[in-house]
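Listing S7. Sequence submitted for prediction.
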Amino acid sequence: MPRKLLTEEILRLSSDEFKRADKLPLVVVLDNVRSLHNVGSVFRTADAYRVQHIVLCGITATPPSAEIHKSALGAENSVDWSYAESSVEACRQLKEQGYVLLPIELAEGSTSLTDVSLDKNKRYAVVLGNEVSGVNQEIIDMGDGCIELPQFGTKHSLNVSVTAGIVIWEFWRGLH
């Protein structure tokens, strides 16, 4: 019967080691995400898979915040992040820097996450939208395509932090 590992037995990077470690060539853009718990959860997942950077845009809350910390558990201190007032401008800058911009949204012509082919020589930016209205249409228009998550129930969306977890994991699998 397997024994659960104790915290001190789990080999984890220190914050300093994390800062120096190779990162996944992925930027996660949060486009007007309302829930501080969702923001914290995205930080925690980004830490787990060494995401390069998070861009918090518009009404998306920024650290320091007790509510973000409750979900992030300190990942807001290890993962590099920045704030941009305009998610459209932040995405425009990422494209100018050579990132492949991929909004995560149900849209005409979107590609299922299961069918996305990633190139290890490219850098990617995924955009996750507001819990009610999704990703800004202007960002979808400037994107290099949209990714959608296949879903088979009665709902047409997942919680933004759950979506982030699935997407970040798939990018880790495809690029690592």
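Caption to Listing S7: primary sequence and predicted structure tokens for the chain studied. Residues 160-175 form the longest helix (16 residues). The two ends are 31 Å apart (CA to CA).
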